[in-house]
Design goal:
By secondary structure, the chain is of the alpha+beta class. It folds into two domains: 4-246, Jelly Rolls (Sandwich); 251-340, Jelly Rolls (Sandwich), CATH 2.60.120. The chain contains ten helices and 22 strands. The protein has helices spanning 19-25, 62-68, 70-74, 76-82, 107-114, 146-155, 158-164, 214-217, 224-227, 238-242; strands spanning 4-5, 36-39, 89-94, 102-103, 122-129, 135-140, 165-169, 175-178, 184-186, 190-196, 203-204, 245-246, 250-251, 257-259, 270-274, 279-282, 287-293, 295-300, 305-309, 313-316, 323-327, 330-335. The strands form five sheets. It has a seven-stranded antiparallel β-sheet with strand order 1-20-17-22-15-14-13, with no helix packed on it. Strands 2-3-10-5-8-12 form a six-stranded antiparallel β-sheet. It has a four-stranded antiparallel β-sheet with strand order 16-21-18-19, with no helix packed on it. A hairpin with a 5-residue loop joins β13 (250-251) and β14 (257-259). The longest helix has 10 residues, at 146-155. The protein is globular.
């Protein structure tokens, strides 16, 4: 029950990217279709039994390690509610090209049609950009009728889709919450730390020009008639859209810690930016650390201390206890959803 430093876990994907990940992690750029690093993953690529899972340095799958001691890894309250499931997927995503317009189903749709308790609400922490005008595309500016959406998808009219969407300029440090159902696309040259529900459910609205056939692989094997029912076709004007973005994170009640997402995200995941001043205090609990810059020391209550530096990804079990980081390290701490109050009780 000690912090574990994880190697890169980069399954091939259908879009280009990954140079930023290689640079951060100190890896060779061997393939331009490795745009993601699935960190501490207990989730597989859709319809694949293994791809995406994290193997620990000792050779075990992380899923097996957690299953052997759910309370030690996740804490009693989390294990009581979720079982041996972190209920979290963390990725590094470096877009070498604009991603296709797509969306993800919510929990209700996933329960009814995919036999899964999770949908795929996600959030991005912008880590780097490498183009003059980095943008992400979020939601439709005005309501879109279903026949119009169907026509865009059938004819693969990406121009019409993008024209109908909000193009949002982003900069390093920004965070964006992306509710399930919201059509979106990360722009070329944007590198994010992504927190999300632990699924690989995506409905493609666009695929022309990408390395896959979305007419076959873009509808979760449900057919587009049903799959497109999960798309949020409502208009997202500026005021509503602004609720998804954070440019000035809120300081937590622990020194050196900033809360990254609005309170409504807690049902899906929690994110913190760690800036030791001179110490960042971490309460006990399962979490994934992504070190984006500098160097420091991770001191745990029950599992000793560790040097940590830019490019490291670390999974921290609950049983390691409270922790503190000192030094000039800048990191993102990714945490599972908050356990609902009704599920917490005396053991």
């Amino acid at each position: 029950m000690k912090p574990l430093f994880l190697p890169a876990n980069r399954p091939p994907r259908f879009f280009r990217g990954g140079v930023g990940i290689a640079r951060l992690r100190g890896l060779d750029v061997s393939d331009d279709h490795l745009p993601e690093d699935w960190v501490a993953s207990t989730t597989t690529i859709f319809a694949d039994p293994v791809a995406g899972l994290t193997r620990l340095p000792d050779g075990r799958w992380l899923t097996d390690a957690i299953a052997a001691d759910p309370e030690g890894w996740l804490g009693a309250a989390h294990a009581d509610h979720y079982g041996a499931d972190p209920a979290l997927l963390v990725k590094l995503l470096d877009a070498g090209q604009r991603l296709p317009v797509h969306c993800h189903p919510d929990r209700d749709f996933a329960r009814r049609h995919l036999d899964c308790r999770y949908g795929k609400t996600e959030a991005w922490v912008v880590a780097e950009t490498c183009v003059d005008e980095p943008v992400v595309h979020l939601g439709f500016r005005t309501d879109v009728q279903r026949p119009v959406l169907d026509e865009w998808v059938t004819t693969q009219d990406a121009g019409a889709m993008l024209h109908a969407m909000n193009a949002v300029r982003v900069t390093v440090g920004d965070t964006v919450l992306v509710p399930a159902g919201l059509p979106h696309a990360i722009g070329e040259g944007v590198f994010v730390v992504e927190l999300q529900e632990p699924t690989d459910f995506s409905v493609l609205l666009e695929w022309d020009g990408f390395d896959l056939d979305g007419s076959v692989d873009g509808h979760l094997r449900l057919g587009f008639e049903l799959a497109l029912a999960c798309v949020d076709r409502s208009g997202w004007e500026e005021g509503r859209l602004s609720q998804l973005r954070t440019t000035r994170p809120q300081a937590a009640d622990r020194g050196g810690v900033e809360v990254l997402f609005p309170v409504g995200a807690d049902a899906y995941f929690r994110g913190e930016r760690l800036r030791p001043q001179p110490t960042a205090q971490l309460d006990a609990g399962y979490s994934v650390l992504v070190a984006g810059g500098g160097r420091g020391t991770l001191q745990t209550e029950r599992a000793g201390s560790y040097d940590i530096a830019r490019g490291d990804t670390v999974v921290l079990p609950c049983a390691a206890g409270r922790a503190a980081i000192t030094g000039d390290l800048l990191a993102v701490r990714c945490r599972p959803p908050a356990v609902p109050a009704a599920s917490r009780g005396p053991r």
